[in-house]
TrEMBL record:
TM helices/strands, residue ranges: none
Gene Ontology molecular function: sequence-specific DNA binding; transposase activity
Region (Disordered): 104-137
Biological process, per Gene Ontology: DNA integration; DNA transposition
One Pfam family it belongs to: HTH_Tnp_1
InterPro entries in UniProt: Homeodomain-like_sf (IPR009057), HTH-like_dom (IPR025948), InsJ-like_HTH (IPR055247), Integrase_cat-core (IPR001584), RNaseH-like_sf (IPR012337), RNaseH_sf (IPR036397), Transpos_IS3 (IPR048020), Transposase_8 (IPR002514)
Organism per entry: Pollutimonas harenae
Name of the protein in its database record: IS3 family transposase
Length: 450
């Protein structure tokens, strides 16, 4: 990782805080990691310039426990805790958590520095002190050192020889057998004869997945990457191959194959999970009249390393997108501006139920006050359950499958214009079978006409 001085960090942070650019744009301009920039900004806001200076600290077990307990008690993220306690190494908290889970408070204490002691080599039969060694002993020692040197050369590409598996050791020994005696190589590697022969037999066994791998690759190429491991598994089973989906997932990961249709989407921080509003919708996605039940969520798009976030609100009566807002960052304005536009369309007597997930935006006081001022009931999905907001998730899937994935965009502005056109098409032209072959606007207009 590149080293940066304090002046450089301050310049980058102040460039972001000026408000002219987002995290990704500033990080790209200054050639730093976006996550690193976020940590710098958080530390600067809490500790000023001192939060960006070099810091070398040895933390006590009590301090580590205090950090972990506060994260658990207040629902903080690791990034927030790093900034609050001015901890510079981003991986420290995760390491402390693993240590505490494995060994309690004692595992958080300081450990002895230096490398772990290596296992002693089997001592060669040495001559008594002060007596010259025989020619046979010298030859045996020379043969051992030559075998050891050849063995270590084979492991040169590996960073830590202590972590080499027995199978890898057996593979190295098998390659050196023509040049050195087997018992000498086993002694150098610290491997038993039975273990060596077991792994040699395993290495020579044919790959039972060889035929499956070719079929997986053929299916992936035929469907142009649209199939993930679940659909690949289903296609293999239809062809008569009995294989578990976990094996297919492991093989696809080994081959570097993955679905390109549904990449990882934006997931907001949950905040105070389950403490704001109950699930009043209860997956009842049908409404008897317009503006009776609304659903909303946030989704993410990526174009040329930049991001765009979309926040729509849908009327469950006819699936119409009542209002929507886009921003380059998932800020609070993304949902409040959308909500204000949607509320402006309501009559004074209309008070719809508004359902969302437990994203942090929907837990903010300003957002909730907008709902309370109009006497609108707020509903939230259960923790980590996207099915509770399936209607909104279905719209996002349709939007991306029918519009985003089928087109190429050169800029965020081009994507924004395309989203505007598609939502208009979705509301006014795209028919739905469950709406009797009408578009959402046509269905609403027909239902309200005398």
């Amino acid at each position: 990782m590149a080293k940066h001085d304090v002046r450089f960090k301050v310049e980058v942070v102040r460039q972001y805080l000026s408000g002219g650019s987002g995290y990704q744009e500033v990080a790209t301009t200054y050639e730093v990691e976006c996550s690193q920039l976020r940590r710098w900004v958080a530390s600067y806001r809490l500790h000023g310039v001192a939060g960006l200076e070099k810091k070398y600290s040895a933390y006590s077990a009590e301090f580590k426990l205090e950090v972990l307990q506060r994260i658990e008690r207040e629902g903080l993220s690791d990034r927030q805790a790093l900034a609050l306690y001015d901890i510079r190494n981003s991986g420290d908290i995760g390491k402390w958590r693993r240590q505490y889970d494995g060994g309690g408070l004692g595992a958080l204490g300081p450990r002895r520095k230096g490398r772990s002691p290596m296992a002693p080599k089997p001592p060669a039969k040495a001559s008594p002190p002060n007596e010259p060694r025989t020619q046979k002993e010298l030859q045996e020692e020379l043969a051992y050192l030559r075998a050891e040197n050849a063995y270590l050369k084979k492991l040169k590409a590996l960073s830590d020889a202590e972590r080499i598996s027995a199978g890898e050791k057996a593979q190295v020994i098998q390659g050196l057998r023509p040049a050195y005696p087997l018992n000498l190589l086993l002694r150098v590697a610290g491997l038993s004869r039975s273990t060596f022969y077991y792994h040699v037999k395993a290495l020579s066994a044919p790959d039972k997945y060889a035929g499956i791998i070719s079929k997986i690759r053929a299916l992936h190429d035929h469907h142009k990457g649209r199939y993930g491991y679940r659909r690949i598994t289903a296609a293999l089973r239809q062809a008569g191959e009995l294989i578990n989906h976990k094996a297919v997932q492991r093989l696809m990961r080994k081959l570097g194959l993955q679905s390109v249709v549904r990449p990882k989407r934006y997931r907001s921080y949950r905040g105070a999970v389950g403490r704001i509003a109950p699930d009043l919708l209860q997956r009842q996605f049908q409404a008897q009249r317009p503006n009776q039940k609304w659903v909303t969520d946030v989704t993410e798009f990526r174009v040329n390393g930049q991001k765009l976030y979309l926040s729509p609100v849908m009327d469950l009566y006819n699936g119409e997108i009542v209002a929507w807002q886009t921003e380059r960052r998932p800020v609070l304005r993304l949902v409040t501006a959308m909500l204000q536009t949607a509320l402006s369309r309501l009559k004074p007597s209309e008070k719809p139920l508004l359902h969302s997930d437990q994203g942090w935006q929907y837990q903010q006081g300003s957002y909730r006050k907008l709902l309370q001022d109009r006497a609108i009931m707020q509903s939230m999905s259960r923790k980590g359950n996207c099915l509770d907001n399936a209607a909104m998730e279905s719209f996002f899937g349709t939007l991306k499958s029918e519009f985003f994935y089928l087109n190429r965009f050169d800029s965020i502005e081009q994507l924004q214009a395309g989203i505007r056109q598609y939502i208009h098409y979705y509301n006014h032209e795209r028919i739905k079978l469950k709406l009797k072959g009408l578009s959402p606007v046509q269905f609403r207009t027909q239902a309200l006409s005398p």
